[in-house]
Amino acid sequence: MYSVYLTDNTELIGNIEFVLPSGSMHSGDVIENVQIVSKIKWPLLYLFSPHVMDNYNTIFRFLLRLKKAQVDIHSVWMDVNHYNNIRL
Questions:
Q1: pLDDT digits over 23-55, tens only?
Q2: For range 48-73, the mean pLDDT
Q3: How far apart are CA 75 and CA 70, in angstroms?
Q4: Which distant-in-sequence residues (6+ apart) come within 8 Å of 20 by Cβ?
Q5: Residue 31 is part of which domain span?
Q6: Which residues, 6+ apart, have CB-to-CB distance to 19 below 8 Å?
Q7: Strand, helix or coil at 55?
Q8: Residue 4 is assigned to a structural domain of this protein
Q9: Which residue has the higher pLDDT, 88 or 49?
Q10: Coiled-coil intervals in this record (predicted)?
Q11: Is the N end or the C end of the chain the one with fewer CB atoms within 10 Å?
């Protein structure tokens, strides 16, 4: 398992990590496999149940796909502008 440590340990939340299951780095779509994992302590444990964390992961992956689309569109726009400037 590959993970990135994001925050210092805090009293209530613990730590938050991005986790990629083993072997998913070589699959076609890493975004579909990345997860946010956190060791949540009482009393926040009642607010962030496993079901709620699954929903957060779904939203997180959607936002990652959206950001990737933005970066890809910007890259194409830069290439087109560069090509148009060369032709002039």
A1: 666 656 778 888 888 777 777 888 888 898 899
A2: 91
A3: 9
A4: 1, 2, 3, 30, 33, 34, 35
A5: 9-87
A6: 1, 2, 3, 34, 35, 36, 37
A7: helix
A8: no
A9: 49
A10: none
A11: C
